[in-house]
Amino acid sequence: MAIVIKATTREGQGTGASRRLRRAGNVPGVVYGGDKGAVSLEFNHKELFLEFRHEAFHASILTLDLEGKKEQVLLRDYQLHPVRNTIQHIDFQRVSASEKIHVKVPLHFINEDVAPGVKLGGGIISHILTEADVSCLPKDLPEFIEVDLAKLEAGHSVHLSEIKLPKGVEFVQLAHDNDAAVASIAKPRGGAADADADEGEAAAE
Question: In this model, does residue 202 exceed pLDDT 80?
């Protein structure tokens, strides 16, 4: 899904100018990187927020339409109002088709309900990581990465090295010899034997 965000060049600078922009329903921002200088931008808050709330907005190559001129960018930073949950400021970075990028990509866990550790062992799944930093060319960037828990037993974990990645994509942590766990199934307290014993005692009473 291609996401296009429209922006105009922002003239005013400083806290006062940004405050006036927000009161008018706009969001101050900036785009930087590549072989061009940083450019101050402003966005319509309503239009921007409609895209911002989608998961793909945070881990996809976006098309920035700056007064008719389009370029590929990544979301790099943003600030939200602590009460109103409105976007206060947003930063984008230009990307080059020939240069690898580092991006945090969400993890989507599948087959949790059929995992042996849950279905047979009565364990509880714990999501240790919900996103992971990947390195790839912009064309290879996935919107999310699936983590299949279909074979996960109670007391065991799934690590980064066990996850199947799309071609051209690698986990940054693995490149630094950090094979982190992303999900685990905790064994239930007690067990079937304990439960049977408790039932026997209750019946005797």
Answer: no
